[in-house]
């Protein structure tokens, strides 16, 4: 439930130079525009005027999102012996949300204007010296009332209380209720973790900042089950591991920081918690939460379900309910961070370019192949190179317009390498590879291209 | 909307030998039990008694599902120049479902029992000679009434008509409403396709057959936009391409067939349609639908949105609304097919084994590494081999119990290769690789193991 509470938006200390020639206050607008133009992110149902802060990923965005999720899964599941992956359903028993506290407590206080009938978050109004409706100016306001942030729907054909189900507001609970099943099937020993990637839904009153806070979003969560008394140490280990992951994702270190939750900020289930924050153009914001959730969740589900959710330590011959250290990240938010962090406007006049400096590991297109001109065997050679590389990576072929324009298009798409086949290539079998960031060009053998790229894309 | 209509369940003609020693009527029960025991599929919210035909994927199931989705994406998107991937939101504007016909027509007729208040699909009762409630026997039944199969919820904090949204019942509409955005951003030319993988929801009255028909499910859909007049030809090409895909997935050809829709079966939007069917223990059932949807969908969205959804052919200098050929597959259904098709009980007595003959391409664990005994350098050598392979694949290490038991465990998990390190290995650097299906063993050099596996896992 951690990040349902709003993090206060502070004025950014970033200078324009963090994004090159563009002023920080313009970065988000430029990025939204680039995202639509190049096919990273479209407004959902745009031909119908859109729908409340919901977004669709276009061709480049869908690849970028896949690459980010794959890199997380590879790091957290595939390369580790002590973490198992699962994929639980979005629709769960409503008892799960009673046990977790979401039915009773996952709420925001709202105030109604009795005059214009609009509804506001209580903190938008309660902070005023002289409270009145921000929309119509009326002072005829209701008191604050609690509204639940879970999406409610009905399973089966009858819309009655007995059939109420919720869209999960977090993926974590799908892990807790499967704790015993995973423990038994995978024959793991504590300490071990369970990880999953999946959609979650929160009926946020004030979504916003592009894909930063949306009502439908995707989480990458890992719950690490540890012996009581060892959770503080694991909390620190996971904080360091997860911060390092953003570095491997290519995010600039100076724009990341760790924030330790104060007593006031701690969720009711947490003994201690850290946020990994990123400095967006709209301020420092939470990227990922690392929480010591104690034994709160397993005990809550034990009490509600009547099933023992404990672990028997064969060596120490003792039974206990494990503590849980959680790492909770958002896919959409991570993707936004990659776009924001890589965005630059560089150069002036004819040399001006917009570039997305995405890490090659997650770039949607790994390389583009260009014949310099459409004759003298160049298209044939470029096509052959493209076909070969395409067996292994997402590689783009472009023979339209000047080489300069083709470079600019790939810069905006975040493509790290452009391969040009020219007249000499046909003669001597060499090609030019141009680096997106340095714009430097090297001439290498076409036969060696695949291994040259493989080294740089790992 | 195609597969909302129930396909009639015919008595299977499969003989017990299709699954080895197990009778076909027992296959599903054995598979559900294996799935839970080994961590392929768990009942969702099981500690709370489960929830209407909803299932969670455990560690092996989550990997298998990822591998199937990745193989589809690689085949349909990454390796092709003429198909773009997208990832649209589950929550869309309600106008989308008005335009598509789902609000008015995505319904099943239901009959109420006025005595016990239970509700039934009309066809369950209308086929009876003497209609009465299947549950309490009462003849006091309502007439048939239409109930919409879409899940309804509310966006924003107020549950009122203006805020009604639906969980998408198919991913296809997310492609149609993004047609222009993708066309412009990706600079494609007709014919081209748009593909996506994502969750969809249908409030089915009678879900069942394990993960075959569930209310929450995942689709892999591709919409191919073609010039009017060419759709019949594309329909045949896609039927062949898609059938071949199931072969590459390892499904036995004799258990696949093509069913051409009769006039009665055709959906209102379709000019012609084929199903790819598989012979499950519970009968021949639809795996994937290949539909010529004509220009129905784009024209419906044009009419409702007032936006032109046409294409200008630069060469022929003509503008038209493209026809659409759709390939629509289910992830859960494909995964069930892989489990069912690979399931065998073989041998007798001490030699008896249960094995999942999954294609190495999609097997969740690619190889297991065993030290023969826990001494004389074998554990160290096996651990080193495991660590090296783990950098590349999901590989399991097991040093518990007899080698025979370890083989049996991997057979049930569908692991294609088991690597054993014995006393000779430590001396001469060779290891034994045992094949899951033939149970034959070969002795090869440990140094050559990685490339030996790479050849067989591609």
Strand segment tally of chain A: 23
Give the oligomer, counting copies of the same chain as homo and different chains as hetero.
Answer: homodimer
Apparent shape of chain A: globular
Quickly give the structural class of chain A: alpha+beta
Protein chains sharing the most extensive interface: A-B, 81 and 81 residues
Main sheet strand line-up of chain A:
3-9-10-16-13-12-11
**Percent of residues in helices of chain A:** 25-40%
Main sheet record of chain A: 7 strands, mixed
Give the termini separation of chain A.
35 Å
Unreliable segments of chain A (pLDDT under 50, ≥5 consecutive)? 1-14
Radius of gyration of chain A: 25 Å
| Mean pLDDT value of chain A | 93
DSSP helical segment count of chain A: 14
Strand content of chain A is 25-35%
Please give a structural write-up.
The structure is a homodimer of 458-residue chains. Chain A is of the alpha+beta class. Helices cover 31% and strands 26% of the residues of chain A. Chain A contains 14 helices and 23 strands. Chain A has helices at residues 24-38, 59-78, 94-100, 102-105, 122-126, 172-176, 179-186, 231-248, 296-305, 331-342, 378-390, 403-413, 423-428, 449-457; strands spanning 41-43, 55-57, 83-85, 107-112, 119-121, 145-148, 152-154, 164-166, 192-201, 216-226, 256-260, 272-280, 283-294, 311-313, 318-320, 323-330, 343-346, 353-356, 367-371, 395-397, 417-421, 430-435, 441-445. The first copy, chain A, has a 7-stranded mixed β-sheet with strand order 3-9-10-16-13-12-11, sandwiched between helices. Chain A has a 5-stranded mixed β-sheet with strand order 20-19-21-22-23, sandwiched between helices. In chain A, strand 17 and strand 18 (353-356) form a beta hairpin. Chain A starts with 23 loop residues before the first helix and ends with a helix. The model of chain A is unreliable at 1-14 (pLDDT under 50). The interface between A and B is large, with 81 and 81 residues.
